[in-house]
Structures are given as structure tokens and as C-alpha cells.
Write a structure and sequence with these properties.
Number of strands: 14
Shape: globular
Helix content: 25-40%
Structural class: alpha/beta
Distance between the termini: 33 Å
Number of domains: 1
Largest sheet: 4 strands, mixed
Radius of gyration: 20 Å
Order of helices and strands: EHEEEHEHEEHEEHEEEHEHEH
CATH architecture: 2-Layer Sandwich
Number of helices: 8
Length: 298
Amino acid sequence: MRFNLLLAGGAAIASLGMSSSVTAAGMWKCAQADGAVLFSDGGGAGCQEVTALPELQSARMPPARTPIQLQGKIEREVPLLSKTPPLPLSSSPFAATTRDIPSLSYHDLPPGLRSQGWSMPNKGDITMVHFEIAHLPAGNGPQISTDDHFKGEARSALGTAVLAAAKATRYDPRFLHVRMTMPIGSIFMAGLRVDGPSAGVAWTVAVTSVLLGDTLRSDVCLSGTMDIHLRVGWVGGLEHKIEGCHILTNFRVMLLPAGQNTFAITDKGMARSIQVREVATLAEAYEITTGQPLRPAP
């Protein structure tokens, strides 16, 4: 998962240890189709180079997000809904439930600032993402939405996570309402923008646990993509993300995609009392995080 910061005011500049007179070579200000202004370390259409950090104060949050549309995607990617005769799917009511899920990320300064000697001592970070999951009695869903902190790739990953959870538990996704938000902990976080699919496995586990009525361990953080075939995919920045896992002291286990563990990651984990474990499938990740097997919903 990637973070893009819509920096606003001197507080953000101070948090990086910079003064407002520092130039921002290598950073670009790009106008988005929805009217938002995104700062990036690469140019392109609609972009102009930022010559001084005070320009960062012009960013604003985009309009409210519309719900994620998945109706056509359901027919294509959840084969349980397109078989003839259809396999039985559960649509049993369940209590509206919330989940607070750790999402790991890493971020760095633009190349232009790094070339001037600026650095970030800790590139790993962790954000608690809030889920509201409920049953839709009318079966007119799935209704999936996020707040303005989440960008395109992250929103798409959430859609895949909901469909993967439904497929894994044989639950009809048309009866699901899922909303994902990021609680604001500070003025600085109000400008945080989250993108990328690397929290997909964590989000899938969250939705699945509600459908099955299982509780989640409070000491496990996860990083990995999730596809509709219930496979955990590779992600970047794991050597930094384990630092994010260590920020909150209750985490003792980090799950990452099979084949991505390295000596450096294991060594960092041992130094921080974090056990590193690899998982290849949703079933493996789910059993570790809940202590229960992945199974059909009641």
C-alpha cells in the first residue's frame, strides 16, 4: 500500500525536518479529473514542477467518493453466481459488525529531495482502517464504499477483497454492505491518501471473519495482495513494513506472501520480537489470524 500526502501548511513540512525555504526539485503538482491536486515525484499530463515547498499548501481533498460499482464484476469473477444450476449460496442475516484492521505501508521522499540529502529514518508505517460490515436484506448489493482517503487501486483492492471473501465462504455478495474508512487521528492525517493493493489480504480476512462470526487476533499484522482465486500475492517494501508493524507494541506476528521472506526481514523481526510467517492462500492467512479454518458461511 502506498501513501500520497496532500501536505498542508508548515506542520507537514516540520514533520520532515525541513524549513519552508527548501526547494522541492523533483516534485510535481498534478491536477486530477475530480478537481483534486496530487503531488507526485513524476510528471505527466496536467502536471507542473513544484519549485518551492509553500506550493504544497494549495492541495484540497476531493469530493465525496461514490460507491464502488461491482455488479458486472460479480458475474465475471465469482463463478458461483454463474453456474447452471447455481450452487447454493448463503444469504443468512448476521449482526452488523465493525473491524479495525492494521494496514501496513511504506513511503519515502521524492528523488529530488533525497538527492539533496534529506531522508526519512522510518519509512514503514501502520494505519488502523475501520470497517463497517452489514447484511442487506433486500439483496440489492453489494454496496461497497470508502471515504476520501482511499484512491483507485485501494478501492479496487477492496472490491476484490469483498468478492474473494464471498467466494471463500460461499456467501452471496449481493447481501453485503461494506464501508471502509480511516479515522482521523490528527490534522496531518486529514491529508493522507492511500493507494495500492498490498493490504488486500488483510481486508479479505476482515470481511471473511464477519461472515463466519470469528474473532481476529489482536497481535497479527498482514501484508499481501489478494486475488479472486484466494491467492496471496507479492508486495514491495516489506523490509520497511515490518517497522510499521512494530510501531504498535501489541503486534507479535507479521504475515507476508510466500517466497518473500528474507534474512533481513527475519533479522528485523527478531530484533523487534515479531515472528515472520509466510502465507500463500487466504485459507492459511485466515487460520493464523483467527485460529479457525476457512469454511462455508452458515
